[in-house]
Amino acid sequence: MHCAMKKNSRSYLFAAGMILLAPSAGAQKPDEAAHFPNRPIRIVIGFTPGGQPDISARLMGPKLSEVFGQQVVVDNRPGAGGVLGARIVAGATPDGHTLLSISSAHVVAPTVHARLGYDPLKDFAGVSQSTSAAYLLVVPPSLEAKTLKDLIALAKAKPGQINFSSGSTGSGTHFAAEMLKLAADIDVVHIPYKGVPEALTDTVSGRVQFFMSPLASAINLVRDGKLRALGVSSAKRVRAYAEVPTIAEAGLPGFEWDSWGGILAPARTPRPIVNKLNREIVRALKLPDVQQRLTSLGAEPMPGTPEQFDKLLAAQLTLTANLARKAGIKAE
């Protein structure tokens, strides 16, 4: 009996020790990131080249390649205001090798597309915000409007005859203009394009009368005299272009609508991999040459934690849903 008890006690202690040593259910496995990445990383962009998500991804890509020792490929998949690109990443293997570079269009899409094919929050994991930038209200030099007040007066004098371009229906550029339309109480017509470059081209030519462009995409055209800038959408003037007034200063007090960008991974991507990506993206965004390039384009580097980016997405989804309701925009 005594020997049996000693044997059972040893067995019990051994089992208890094994339980203490065993990883608990749901515990993180840091070694999941040890061999990541083991092949090229693809950053999908749901827009044509030249927009904010494209520019920031192409700036960060080489920096990530240097650290990871793997090629970082930027893959433009334009269509439906970024929806087509988001679908690709939502359905990708959640191992960190397929990422999505987004703009504010990501939270606008649910308000205009009834069948996205993905959930903009649940099907993605935030990696980091990358940038924040103002939209730039631009008009062709041929337009008689020299100021925002001139443009509003022109639109009121010609209801339904003034057109504005966008990078596509449901894009951030679309909603920025819809907010301007509501704030100014003007009747203007939306002309969607395939992407920001195409929208800019027809604004330069005068086929459309104004465009709320990502600042980085339009500023060189303004410098070259091919477009006229009437205002920036941010609450404060952009440091690099302090001569351009805010839209609030130019005639619509209280107006503010920022463009932002960031990187998402598919949902269920292991947290150690998300954290490893976050560390290197944050490092890249803090490099002087990257910061200088972004600042020259009117964008502010905005590195942050995955949790902060997830919270931003949730808040922005609510904001854009409210704007869509006020503007009478319905998902189709």
Structure, described:
By secondary structure, the chain is of the alpha/beta class. The chain has two domains: 164 residues, D-Maltodextrin-Binding Protein, domain 2, CATH 3.40.190; 117 residues, 3-Layer(aba) Sandwich (D-Maltodextrin-Binding Protein, domain 2). The chain is 44% helix and 19% strand. The chain is built from twelve helices and ten strands. Strands 1, 2, 3, 4, 5, 6, 7, 8, 9 and 10 form a ten-stranded mixed β-sheet that branches. Helix 4 packs across helix 12 and helix 6 crosses helix 12. The longest helix is centred in the last third of the chain and has 22 residues. It is globular.
- As a whole number of angstroms, the C-alpha radius of gyration is 24 Å
Number of alpha- plus pi-helical segments: 12
Pick out the low-confidence regions.
1-28
The separation of the N and C termini measures 78 Å
Question: How many domain modules?
Answer: 2
Q: Name the average pLDDT.
A: 89
Secondary-structure class: alpha/beta
Number of strands: 10
Helix content: 40-55%
CATH topology of the largest domain: D-Maltodextrin-Binding Protein, domain 2
The CATH class designation of the largest domain is Alpha Beta
Sheet with the most strands, sense and barrel status = 10 strands, mixed
Do you know the CATH architecture of the largest domain?
Answer: 3-Layer(aba) Sandwich
CATH superfamily of the largest domain: Bordetella uptake gene, domain 1
Shape: globular
Order of helices and strands: HEHEHEHEHEHEHEHEHEHHEH
Strand content: 15-25%
